[in-house]
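Case study: DNA ligase (ATP).
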Amino acid sequence: MAKPPRSRSLQATDQPLRSRPRKLRDPAQPNLPLDPLPERVEPCLALLKARPPKGPRWAFEIKWDGYRLAVHIEPKGVRIITRGGHDWTDRFPAIAKAAKKLDVATAILDGEAVVLDEQGRSDFGLLQQSLGDRSGKRISTEAIFMAFDLLYFDGHDLRTLEFTARRHLLEGLIKSRDDVIRLSEEIEADGDRLYFAACEHGLEGIIAKDRESPYRSGRRGDWQKIKCIQSDGFAIVGYEHSFVARAGIGSLLLGARHGRKLVYVGSVGTGFNERTAHELRAALDKLKVKKPPVEYSGRRKYIVWVKPTLVAEIEYRAWTHDGKLRQSSYKGLRDLEENAAIYEILAN
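Here is what the predicted structure looks like once written out:
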């Protein structure tokens, strides 16, 4: 049987056939359409709940106690942006250096900068200490970054993808468990059991995330936080002078917002060490005022009132029947650049 004749075009060359382009390609046009890299992304915030949600739709992680950050890996370098939109790249040089080593051209990682204690628990107080004196350079070489979401990856905006898909890409990007940038592990467990286990081990709480949700900025309920111990920001309205306590501070007097005014919500006398007490005293003595910024009916003999500028992170167990903090402990000062929020008492 005779073989079919070969095409003349194939006799002349072994290269594959190609059609002629309709017009010359613009060199500035990328081969594939890429999403613009966002300058900043408003973070997705977790909604406080009393109990964990139920059902297979929810993924669970440990709640980290640190500074919420977005690590931007860009063609020009790395930027570390805070929840409030400030550039803190210089404050976390180790995290920035580790981000440059990740095998990705462009990315935005969402996570938390933390310092771990000897038991592997995140400790906001240790993070504040690692950043140094408030009058210093505020640089931490001890902080690590616990990444829990991936918002942008190699030219593609991932925010419209469901959480499970974003998580899958994040797990492929961060493979080391001992590096400065680590993966916040998803824990396969019943929400209630995980919550009680977290509380037994002295953790702050857990986070529940809707596996099917896109990344939406704000507090919409796609992410939920269930806390073992309450922790919020309160204005320092004064301190009780002591002749025996460190730096002369017996306790800090605290205020919360109630409508348009501040109200007194009790005091805190634990959580200080020698260093933090002296830093507080130096800062507070620059803010002295004669008139109390809150209504106060207690003993005033040794009270020093201050302008309510500084916001303290306070850990507490509950509220008393008369609206005071119960079993409170000082954890550190919130950074004023981050628009430190003061706890707001909701009207009945």
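For the exam, be able to explain this: The mean pLDDT is 88.
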